[in-house]
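Title: Prediction job returns without error message
Component: structure pipeline
Severity: low
Priority: P3
Assignee: unassigned

Description:
Job completed but the reporter wants confirmation the result is attached to the right record. Sequence as submitted:
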Amino acid sequence: MNLRDIKKDIEYVIGAFVDDCTLFLDIHAGKNADEIADLIDSAVDLYNALRDKIIAAPKDAKKSYYTDIRKELLESTDALYDKLSAAVKKGLGE
């Protein structure tokens, strides 16, 4: 596991989430816009927090340190996707 790969994973995963949010807003203009905007803000906060953890990593950081960051990325974005799914269902009236 390489530090560069972790940084790319963070950008890709969170970027994909933000893209999904904006796609919903583009297709269904005005539906749950505030809730989706809050989710995007949460994703940006997650991005900043994870990047800060990488920057603050100890010089002798072990593989497990970066594995924990990747695990946090996946668990946090999974929770964000659950919230997005609920917002989409609510916005579409299902």
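Comment from assignee: result matches the submitted record. Residues 3-92 form one domain.
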